[in-house]
Amino acid sequence: MNVNDKYIKIAKDILNNGYDEESLNEDVRPVWENGENAYTLYLPQQFVRYEKGEVPLTSLRKIAWKSAIKEILWIYQDRSNDVDLLKEKYKVNYWDSWKNEKGNLGKAYGYQINKEFKSPETGKITNQIDRLISELKNNPLNRRLIINLIDVDDMSEMTLIPCAFLTMWTVTGGYLNLTLIQRSGDFLAAAAPGGINAFQYYVLLRMISQVTGYKAGDFVHFIQNYHIYKKHIPSIKKIINIKPDSRNNPKLLINEDIKEFKDFSIDDFKLEDYYPDQTKYDIDIAL
Ligand SMILES: Nc1nc(=O)c2c([nH]1)NC[C@@H]1CN(c3ccc(C(=O)N[C@@H](CCC(=O)O)C(=O)O)cc3)CN21
Ligand SMILES: O=c1ccn([C@H]2C[C@H](O)[C@@H](COP(=O)(O)O)O2)c(=O)[nH]1
């Protein structure tokens, strides 16, 4: 099954078999801009496997792939929670609704990457990304290689509790394999197979592989609550009936001269053979 097939299969599964929040007569947290409840159809515990060499980018609709990479650079390289930085440095606006009065996300996302702690392996003061890179180079059989964006001590000071919050990393011979755990996934806006979340974490896998001397291996994306907002249903129904351009076979090229994680910039990433459907969808984002 290619990425588009995976997209269509899970979309149909949620549409046909998803639990309908509205009919459960319980409160839901998210609202639309006008204050109305944002109900979903949802399925629990879905996962998507992308074999090595497969780029998780759908061509059923246009994905903001550069913004997706910029978000990763902002979180893992700038180690920032500052929404104004995302806007000024990267021209990405879509986190604006979640910033606090100081213009940041509180103790979420990049804050957890910048936080220092004592490495359990070396005893030296480090941060989660530096420890991961150093252990992959020096101690590849380490089974404790995770990056966690949720620290329960800080949860009440996060403006949004990270959705794609946990990565786990395992070396097999010359390959680095990644699992991403996502607690909650908005199918249309971000979490679909080949959408922003899958693609951006695949890019992180490629980047970390490149600077630690491995090839990118398999990528598994697990979503605990996978949902389609009911307002998005008409768009999803259109998308799953698109016949994509048969030339699609996306390849991601990354500047091979980059050897240090801190040196990647957005201009080091190029996509080839990507011809996404150009239909425009006006996507409301639940707040
Ligand atoms: N309900 C909800 N869904 C999300 O996916 C989400 C949140 N909230 N809150 C935090 C971030 C913000 N995210 C967003 C916000 C907006 C778009 C969006 O407007 N996407 C459009 C245009 C993207 C562009 O061209 O820049 C799209 O067509 O996908 C996507 C993800 C992802 N996250
Ligand atoms: O990277 C992201 C960030 C956010 N989301 C979605 C998932 C949910 O629809 C909302 C968050 O609402 P919660 O009630 O906190 O789950 O944002 C995503 O899919 N991907």
Automatic annotation (TrEMBL):
<feature type="binding site">
    <location>
        <begin position="143"/>
        <end position="144"/>
    </location>
    <ligand>
        <name>dUMP</name>
    </ligand>
</feature>
<dbReference type="InterPro" id="IPR036926">
    <property type="entry name" value="Thymidate_synth/dCMP_Mease_sf"/>
</dbReference>
<dbReference type="GO" id="GO:0004799">
    <property type="term" value="F:thymidylate synthase activity"/>
</dbReference>
<dbReference type="InterPro" id="IPR023451">
    <property type="entry name" value="Thymidate_synth/dCMP_Mease_dom"/>
</dbReference>
<feature type="binding site" description="in other chain">
    <location>
        <position position="197"/>
    </location>
    <ligand>
        <name>dUMP</name>
    </ligand>
</feature>
<keyword id="KW-0489">Methyltransferase</keyword>
<dbReference type="InterPro" id="IPR045097">
    <property type="entry name" value="Thymidate_synth/dCMP_Mease"/>
</dbReference>
<comment type="function">
    <text>Catalyzes the reductive methylation of 2'-deoxyuridine-5'-monophosphate (dUMP) to 2'-deoxythymidine-5'-monophosphate (dTMP) while utilizing 5,10-methylenetetrahydrofolate (mTHF) as the methyl donor and reductant in the reaction, yielding dihydrofolate (DHF) as a by-product. This enzymatic reaction provides an intracellular de novo source of dTMP, an essential precursor for DNA biosynthesis.</text>
</comment>
<dbReference type="GO" id="GO:0005829">
    <property type="term" value="C:cytosol"/>
</dbReference>
<feature type="binding site">
    <location>
        <position position="186"/>
    </location>
    <ligand>
        <name>(6R)-5,10-methylene-5,6,7,8-tetrahydrofolate</name>
    </ligand>
</feature>
<feature type="domain" description="Thymidylate synthase/dCMP hydroxymethylase">
    <location>
        <begin position="6"/>
        <end position="278"/>
    </location>
</feature>
<feature type="active site" description="Nucleophile">
    <location>
        <position position="163"/>
    </location>
</feature>
<dbReference type="GO" id="GO:0006231">
    <property type="term" value="P:dTMP biosynthetic process"/>
</dbReference>
<keyword id="KW-0545">Nucleotide biosynthesis</keyword>
<dbReference type="InterPro" id="IPR000398">
    <property type="entry name" value="Thymidylate_synthase"/>
</dbReference>
<dbReference type="GO" id="GO:0032259">
    <property type="term" value="P:methylation"/>
</dbReference>
<dbReference type="Pfam" id="PF00303">
    <property type="entry name" value="Thymidylat_synt"/>
</dbReference>
<feature type="binding site" description="in other chain">
    <location>
        <begin position="183"/>
        <end position="186"/>
    </location>
    <ligand>
        <name>dUMP</name>
    </ligand>
</feature>
<comment type="similarity">
    <text>Belongs to the thymidylate synthase family. Bacterial-type ThyA subfamily.</text>
</comment>
<keyword id="KW-0963">Cytoplasm</keyword>
<comment type="pathway">
    <text>Pyrimidine metabolism; dTTP biosynthesis.</text>
</comment>
<keyword id="KW-0808">Transferase</keyword>
<dbReference type="GO" id="GO:0006235">
    <property type="term" value="P:dTTP biosynthetic process"/>
</dbReference>
<feature type="binding site" description="in other chain">
    <location>
        <begin position="227"/>
        <end position="229"/>
    </location>
    <ligand>
        <name>dUMP</name>
    </ligand>
</feature>
<feature type="binding site">
    <location>
        <position position="286"/>
    </location>
    <ligand>
        <name>(6R)-5,10-methylene-5,6,7,8-tetrahydrofolate</name>
    </ligand>
</feature>
<comment type="subunit">
    <text>Homodimer.</text>
</comment>
<protein>
    <recommendedName>
        <fullName>Thymidylate synthase</fullName>
        <ecNumber>2.1.1.45</ecNumber>
    </recommendedName>
</protein>
